[in-house]
């Protein structure tokens, strides 16, 4: 690490005579900051606006570098604390660490196993996102829009590399604008650059329209207009090739909002727009009602998860979980219905499905039994009870299925269209399926066993986002080009913008990955960012108080808690407490096991302990409890000092029973996982097998806990469904068979034995949506792990009297040699790689209650040998002792205090406490993002590579004017003159005009999302042109048709399409494989009805150029892809 950073002799070279003003004091700045204080920079409004932020960031850079210099130039060991505090205690390190499941997680300034990324929005703490987390994103050519649970947010791409000046929470992102709050949760979004608006679909069933041009005001913005589109949530939304807005909802409902109605609403001013919003709301076309007569409605009743517009063929795909429907975007006719296996669905008897709510569905199932029983009295009591149970079970199954717990791994999660016209779908099994544009299944690919969450395509590449957080990259043939773990949670959405692929994680973080990744830019960026690590690295220091106590089912006095925790908590930022044997007994353990099976935990006694400890810590004023977990008699809780709360969150809990059958919590562990300064820390409270001879069982308990501790939050829906079933079954059993409560408890004990593993299996299946794969334990992924509790390791080879003598003489060195835990750690059999401060306090077990001093050791009949049962161990990021804290070794800890509170007599165990001094290296994302942008803009090697990769191939088109009448078809030829690069093209309509009597175009107006008018068919509207090849595009005039006006889904009026001469401007956008920048060709296409216009155009066509430019279907000919073709067309002029 040190070799990558400046040597001490080189550090002075970073400084020069640049001076800046800071609090009216002249301060010299390092040379690396000159670019942020360049007096010759432009004085434009944008620059002036960015200066305060850049100035603050420059100051932070200076602070970070001074901190770096202090670390490099001071004494090598920073294990010493500040002056006036105690030195770090010596430690014992267990063998066996650093390999296998005990390997340290890889950490670096730039992650070694993935491309460098642009951190647009850092992973926010979950606790700060309640009611406002981001759920979807969409990009235009200049903006990134994000839909949250109560607002929408907009970033300008020109601000991607700008810092915010602070690093607190959301402020570490680039500057952004937000809408007014109170907006229902956004589920789907689509951009319409032709109209410069963004459409969003919301949970309350509304569709909202937002203006892209937000101006320069920093105030929150509001919607242009909105209307209630569906009774249920708007699950999907898309704009077709003809500018219509399609939306999908629950129950298979698809509605079309015609462009003509939307255009009218957009043309009105804000003051008058409300007058036409009602007409938009009532203008919809209900496709379900349109196809009922055709007999397809029975297969179109599932939720419409996705809608996809195939603009190249003017079709629309609607996607349910296990089926697809293919529609004609122009005529709005249903073309085909087929399932995920590609089999065409047969037409059946039509029916109208009723959209019941979840609660109504459960009520109907449960109430159907009694009504039927009243009609059929021949059923006996037990038969009726059986029916009630089976009805409840069926209701729970339906509830679980609606929540996704009954999983079909063939379920389609997302789909995307590629530039070559192929459709790709991703399944919950991780399967990728390629389809042609007509819905024929071509081939399958499987590169990952986790569920696909989202797909994105651009150029010749396809990105796949998985629930595991992995992103994979494929080419158009389905070959795997690379993959990496992009986020620590599922990747739920991906979009293209500003030459980046942006990924949105389920936790709300957004990262940008360069188009070329994985590629040659990655190694350059990684090297450059690593060399500047000292500019954006900040070292934080905090103290953690960890305490463990086996309370032996007793209760502590306030004085005991003050002695144990209160006296030591004055200077710490985090307090974690683990208790054992809070409550025991067969009945309690059985009930606890039963509650665990339905997602419930805790007890009144456990709550008493939380309250009394919170009172000791001055909870509410000084500390706040942010998490706790109880498993039978085990309890763990964590408190954070108020001034640290903004940096601590993402609290997850876990429990692993190790008792009878690995299902009962009399032995086992409970844990909390928390993120502190963006680093993961795990605290685990353990209680292992008792008795002197049970060393191997204790080792096995640790191994079981370490491998199986899975952190997470239980699903309310799952708990509710399981709870309904469990409560019904419990009550019915007691009612039918008059069983005693104790018998029921033992019944639940038996249920727990089988259900504990079943619940884990169910959670695992739901997590990945596919077959389980063995992975590293979650504890292995943490930056710091603290294990505390009653480990129950005893002293071997020593008698009771000998132990008492050594304790009274405080000869702990010799006693430690008899310690079973130390022996097992030395052999590498348990707690591999963990560290423990050298014990210098008396054994903490076993004592007579309320007997003070060392005379209180067990003097009864058994005379248990004193032992250090209660311990606190840990590991951090250090692969070797005395490692420097850096982004490669982000958490470095030492123990400043490790002792037992021998004056506490409320239990047969003594409480133990340990104070850790922890150094944490964190990234200042504002500075790192600015450095990232500076590297991309100034590095000559990167600029050279991008210039080659992002080159737009030279192309020519065969004409710039096309005249159509009488259903003509003309062939537009696009020639790729590049000798080696493919050219990618897309054809859009920039707008339509009406031709006046003098032949001039007027009333030019764009169509939604640059869609085509209904009289024009352009096929294909997108594609790939190989080097020295020609693409032929059919431009066809459709026969004028009858237009219908719909009101509330019912056709009301009809009229013939406008027969006046029309003209559109087609823009042929050409780009390369690695850039969104385009070179545009424009072609004027005129639809002619009038005789006068035909004569004018006939005269024009007498010229040879126009005859060459207008090629009718009779002139259609396929040309070869050789240089001869290019020579044949070299005289054609590109507009």
What's the layout of helices and strands?
Elements: H1 8-11, E1 15-22, E2 25-30, H2 45-73, E3 91-93, E4 118-121, E5 134-139, E6 143-148, E7 152-156, E8 176-178, E9 186-192, E10 197-202, E11 206-211, E12 225-228, E13 236-239, E14 245-248, E15 254-257, H3 259-267, H4 274-281, E16 285-286, H5 287-292, E17 306-310, E18 315-319, E19 323-328, E20 334-339, H6 358-375, H7 381-402, E21 412-417, E22 423-427, E23 431-435, E24 441-446, E25 452-458, E26 461-466, E27 470-475, E28 480-485, E29 491-497, E30 500-505, E31 510-514, H8 520-531, H9 533-536, E32 537-550, H10 558-566, E33 574-580, H11 586-597, H12 604-616, E34 623-631, E35 634-641, E36 648-657, E37 668-676, E38 679-687, H13 695-708, H14 716-737, H15 741-768, E39 784-790, H16 800-808, H17 812-816, H18 820-826, E40 835-837, E41 870-875, E42 891-900, E43 912-923, H19 925-938, H20 940-949, E44 955-957, E45 961-964, E46 969-976, E47 983-995, E48 1001-1005, E49 1016-1019, E50 1022-1025, E51 1030-1037, E52 1042-1047, E53 1050-1056, E54 1062-1071, E55 1079-1087, H21 1091-1100, H22 1104-1109, H23 1123-1128
Parallel strand pairs: 32-33, 38-39, 45-55
Antiparallel strand pairs: 1-2, 3-40, 4-31, 5-6, 6-7, 7-8, 9-10, 10-11, 11-12, 13-14, 14-15, 15-16, 17-18, 18-19, 19-20, 21-22, 22-23, 23-24, 25-26, 26-27, 27-28, 29-30, 30-31, 32-43, 33-35, 34-35, 36-37, 37-38, 39-41, 42-43, 44-46, 46-51, 47-48, 47-50, 47-54, 49-51, 52-53, 54-55
Helix pairs in contact: 3-4, 6-7, 7-14, 8-20, 11-15
Keywords: Membrane, Transmembrane, Transmembrane helix
Family: Belongs to the inositol polyphosphate 5-phosphatase family.
GO molecular function: phosphatidylinositol-4,5-bisphosphate 5-phosphatase activity
